[in-house]
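Table 4 source record.
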Amino acid sequence: MIAMLLTSCLLAGVTDSNAVKQPVILSYPQKAAIASCLLPGAGQVMNRQAWKAPLAWGIMAGAGYFVYLNQSTFNRLSLAIDIRYDNDPNTIDEFDGLYTTNQLFSLQNTYRRSRDYAVLGLAGTYLFQVLEAYAAAHLVDFDVSRNLSLKLSPTTLPQPLIGAKMTFSWH
């Protein structure tokens, strides 16, 4: 998925292999998105919003921790199930006496599902920080000076209706 995104960003504008090859000039939002693809949080730093990068890192680290935790518990349960079915009376799993075999299968499915949700959360967080860097890069040069104004005033219309007039102006 990342390779497809990078390829589409880098090859934007190339339409024909026989055409004269122009150097691909990436816009600032594309550069921020590619930077975030390569190193999470780099696009936020490029956009001069460095305070967002630790948030992205923290959320991704939390999701990664849940992936690790659920996978390691899943592996322990899988090993316990394998030990119960190895037909060797000398091997005893760590859950012996705590759970039945059916309960182990149920727990294994629960931790597999939780791991899968954690992987989706990690992928979603990764994609969100890339899209956030891309969208924020469009707003880097957005004018938020005091010269922007909004004026509301009552107005009359040709028919006997009451209305309001809104005027936006910038200087």
